[in-house]
From TrEMBL:
Pfam families linked to this entry: HutD
This protein's name: HutD family protein
UniProt xrefs under InterPro entries: RmlC-like_jellyroll, RmlC_Cupin_sf, Uncharacterised_HutD/Ves
Top-rank taxon: Bacteria
């Protein structure tokens, strides 16, 4: 297991230059925006504007703070859809090529969590977890990310996760998939991301 804290992250400009993003983890390590297989980041959105274009990338977005985002998605030039994403919404999945214009609900700055995977190599699934015990048995995943958005959580190996901490779990040689248990404190909010590689192994 690998464990990152707030001091391990670094911030960089958006691909389209319209803001900044904090990279939490990337695979392979130190890969750039054109080389990553997966990337998890947060971004502070303080004004309306378009999302960056990422060809052959699947994305999932969750709102961590703020009133929310109104996302105008145009998957085909003649079929536009509006999606309002708030802290209570399920994480929203979309293709990185999709033209998206985002507006702020009530003009309030939003902090979001963004997972991206290269679709010809792997897929991902993000879910939000609250307080209580969670037994994770991701049999089809080779890697699992666990991000603590707020509160605290303790893992079955004794590790304590605090707000903004991130852990990476990897498939062991003993059994298929990734298994662990989480004890999340009251008011805790966690995001679990399963990563499944389309080919055997991670190479």
């Amino acid at each position: 297991m690998r464990h990152w804290t707030l001091h391990d992250y670094h911030t960089m400009p958006w691909k389209n230059g319209g803001g900044s993003t904090t990279e939490l983890a990337v695979f392979p390590e130190q890969a750039g925006l054109d080389q990553f297989i997966w990337r998890l980041s947060t971004a502070s959105v303080s004004s309306a504007g378009p999302f960056s274009h990422f060809a052959r990338i699947d994305r999932t977005l969750a709102v961590l703070s703020g009133q929310g985002l109104i996302m105008q998605c145009d998957s085909e030039s003649q079929h536009a859809a509006s999606v309002t994403l708030t802290r209570d919404s399920q994480p929203y999945r979309f293709a990185g090529e999709t033209p998206v214009f985002a507006e702020l609900v009530q003009g309030e700055t939003v902090l979001d969590l963004n997972m991206m995977t290269r679709r010809d190599i792997c897929t991902h699934y993000m879910q939000r977890l609250g307080a209580g015990q969670h037994v994770i048995s991701a049999q089809d995943a080779q890697q699992v990310l666990l991000f603590c958005a707020r509160g605290e959580a303790r893992l079955d190996n004794g590790s304590l996760l605090q707000a903004s901490d991130l852990c990476l779990f990897e498939e062991s040689t003993e059994h298929a998939g990734v298994r662990f248990t989480i004890e999340a404190a009251e008011q805790a909010e966690l995001y679990l991301i399963r990563i499944h590689f389309l080919a055997t192994g991670l190479s």
